[in-house]
Every structure is written in C-alpha cells, then in structure tokens.
Design goal:
The chain is mostly helical and 220 residues long. It folds into two domains: 66 residues, Winged helix-like DNA-binding domain superfamily/Winged helix DNA-binding domain (Arc Repressor Mutant, subunit A, Orthogonal Bundle), CATH 1.10.10.10; 137 residues, Up-down Bundle (Four Helix Bundle (Hemerythrin (Met), subunit A)). Helices cover 64% and strands 4% of the residues. The chain contains ten helices and three strands; from the N terminus they run αβααββααααααα. The protein has a three-stranded antiparallel beta sheet. A hairpin with a 5-residue loop joins strand 2 and strand 3. The longest helix is centred in the middle third of the chain and has 22 residues.
Amino acid sequence: MPRSALNAEEEAYQHIQRQIVQGAARPGSRLVPEIIAGEIGISRTPVRVALRRLASEGLVTIRTNRSAVVRRLNRREMLEVFQIRSVLEGLALRNAMENMGPVQLHRLDAMLDQLDGTAPAAVDQTSTHREFHEYLCGFCRQPRLQQQIADLHAVVEPYMRLWASEPGRVAVRMREAHQELIDAIRGGDPAHCEATMRKHVMATVSALAPFLPDDDGRAE
C-alpha cells in the first residue's frame, strides 16, 4: 500500500531522530535529503518537512543555503537544557509520588543493576538510563510534561553517548546516584524528592563539557 504524505513524513522524522539520538549522525554532520530518502524509500519532500520539524525541536540546524546539519550545542546551550530538564523532572517526580508504591519501587530497585558502571558491555547504559528516568517520571501522569522531558532527553542523548563511549573512560558508578532518588521516594517528602532530582540532573553537566565547544564555538 502506498504511503500517505503524513505517514512518509513521520517515517522520515522517526528515522532521522533515531540516527541522531543513537549517535549514527553525530553533531555537525550533514543530513542530505536525497540520501535519507533513498535509505527509507520515499521522496525528498517528506524528508525536508521532517528536517524542519527536527529543527523546531533543536536537533537540526537549517542553514541559509537550505542544507541541514545535526545541531552542535555549545556549553551555554547545554547548561540551559539541563537547567530546564532539572526543573521539569523535579516537578514530574514530585507529582509522581502519589502514584507510586511498593511495586513501582521494587521495579526501580531491579533497574539499578543495569545502571551500575560494572554492567556487561552489551548493555546500552545510555538507553537504560533514559528508560529509568522515563519510567520514574511517567507516574506524574501528565502527558505534556512528559513530552517536554522526552524532547530534552533527545537533545542531550547524543552527547551522553559520546561521553559513554570515550576510550579509557572510567565507568561511573551510576547505581549510587540513582539509589539516592529511590531513597528520597521512600522517604515520602515530595519537596525533598523534587530537590534530589534537580540536583541529580545537574550533576551530569560537567561530565559533558569536554565534548562541547565553549560559548564562542571554540573547543578547548
């Protein structure tokens, strides 16, 4: 059955976003509509529409000559993204607490094994980390808030993958940081949970700095 224009645009959007988020298309690399269209078997028009949509979400930059590249954030921009994330995820966790109980906490405990820096190399820790946060924030039951958080995760995930794949990088013990979140939930104080989440999110910013140009676009 032939694709509708809407379905083709969504397919192109999902394909390009996946390439960016999973690191196949790295920050600064060109996105050529003809190549992308050939990869998924559609025309260039829905690809161009998808690229404009991704540009509105901060993942792609459309240049004056109409070429497109994967957007490269600088340190100031990344700090802004994490500041917004910290506020939104803090709010989500605060609102999620009333919908969480022993069953959900048990699931979070089980997820910690995959977040440990000693997990098998086959484990995609970047995806697992995102899944942990999505599961946790999902209990706020606020779709608009959850979508905004998901969009921000998509912006930072390529840089998280660069950091995680750095040769010789000492594995970070992520268990302890996420255990702190679970302990806060068990404590039952919504304000403390919100503050703990905000602190947790902001703690990652300094680790990503070496992979970003400074505010003037110059790498150290």
